[in-house]
Amino acid sequence: MNINRIYADLFTAYNNLEIASDEYIIDIAAYHTQQAIEKSLKYYLHNLYGVNEEDANYKIHNIANLIKQICRFDPKFAENNHDLIACANKLTIWEASTRYSHGIISNVKGIKKYLKIADRLYNNIKKIEEERIKNIIEQCKKDPFYIKNIKHEFQNKEIINACLDGCRNCKGVNPSDIIENVSDQYKEIILNFKGQWTPSAPNGDLVWSD
Q: Do 23 and 115 fall into the same domain?
């Protein structure tokens, strides 16, 4: 699960609350609040605990069930999220009812209450993500081929730039050597990068040229 997907739902929920001109737009804010929480739980399952995204239990929208799955890996998760457990069933109902019901499902007070939970989950994940990226960047600067270990969905510009630094630091490794391991959306950065190691020194040693 890409953390940016979670942020996008939070942004949309808050934005819809601010500009809401009728109750149906408020219901859409409720939907994106539910989605931010659901995707946060799936981040824990997939990114932290390795649950396959194709697993039937991962694809569900039942918040209580997702919480139970996390608790198998981290029993303390329930202790730290009593408020989330208390509203799990309502959030599950919001997933579809806020989009398809003929009547109004949510209200501003309830959405703001659940947005606090969504914010907390997101901020916890953000800390985890920042530490993860920091460690990956350090590894890529030492060994640009470390990018092989990073799934395309988890790559970003910082990581790619760290790999380019790694190419400079590791004699003989040129950006073109790692491009096959880079996500398609970032290959242009590699292709547009001019630096490389070439045997242009008088004694035949490799020299980095930008």
A: yes
Domain with 38 in it: 3-132
Asked if residue 91 belongs to a domain, the reply is: yes
Is the same domain home to 113 and 147? no
Give per-residue pLDDT as tens, 148-192: 999 887 889 999 999 999 999 999 999 999 999 999 999 999 999
Q: Which residues contact 124 (CB under 8 A, 6 or more apart)?
A: none
**What does the pLDDT look like over 40-93, one tens digit per residue?**
999 999 999 999 999 999 999 999 999 999 999 999 999 999 999 999 999 999
Which pLDDT value is given to residue 65?
97
Cβ-based neighbours of 64, under 8 Å, separated by 6 or more: 85, 88, 89, 92
Closest to 95 (Cα-Cα) out of 19, 33, 9, 25: 33
Please list the residues that pair with 209 across neighbouring strands: 196
- Give the span between the Cα atoms of 183 and 83, in whole angstroms: 38
How many domains is the chain partitioned into structurally? 2
Residues 38 and 83 in one domain: yes
CATH code: domain of residue 14: 1.20.120
Tell me the one-letter amino acid at 35. Q
37 vs 34: CA distance, rounded Å? 5
The structure's pTM equals 0.82
pLDDT band (50, 70, 90) for residue 21: confident
Same domain, 126 and 171: no
